[in-house]
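Problem: given the chain below (273 residues), write out its structure.
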Amino acid sequence: MLLSHGPACRETLGSRQRRAQAEAPFSAEFRDSCSAAFSLFPRRRPRAGRAQVGDLNLGVAPSIVTGPLQRFLQLYRRLLPDVEIHCLEGEHASLILALREHRIDIAVGYPDLDGNAGVRATLLWHERLYVAVPDEHVFARDRFVRWEQFENQSSITRGWTVPPHAYKELARRLPRSMDVTHHLVSCETLLGLVAAGFGFAVVPASATVVAYPGVAFRPIKEPEAKVAVFAAWLDERDNPAKVKFVAELRAFADTGKRKQSNCCASPIGSSRA
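Solution.
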């Protein structure tokens, strides 16, 4: 019999006595082997109940892992190295569906993760918006750009069956004289089209972390030129690793908000000045 003692376990006195009686008829070599085997028992109990081990299925919006979420994941994996994280990338609709079908435990993405029936969501941070332009574009000569500079310019954007909330908000601010073309492609392919001269694109700060040949990124210097990042999950998912992940993610986001408030810095997620 093993007795639990804090995070460890040990053999009870009664068990040791019964084992000694059972081993008596056997050789000293056999008894030594048994003692060596039992000496291995004072070890830590399984930590799944304390969310220190287990699996976590994380849904993410395209490119978002290269922003503040990347820094959080680095810290989280140092803190809980035995929690195995599996990622699923998708747009907001597919992430919400994956949550409902219990294929993921938590999703991190843009505003459309908020406001879904039966899904809890919390605001994590904001990412500054940037313009991605070909190296030879006139915008590349400036340190930053403003909305009025978009007049009569050609822009490209990703296409959706149902445009996300962030795109609708952005479209309201852009000049009507802009020529906008939609492409049903990933963010990475969109930036490839930017380099090929198809036009400029507006992207979140997380998309600017990776260098793309022929593409320059410039911040949009407007107070509202930012996009919110949310986390979403279902309460009924009984996964201790998920509960711990949500708590640590919210604490990480709160720390970032306090730092931003104290130093009046750029929105959280701005990876380039």
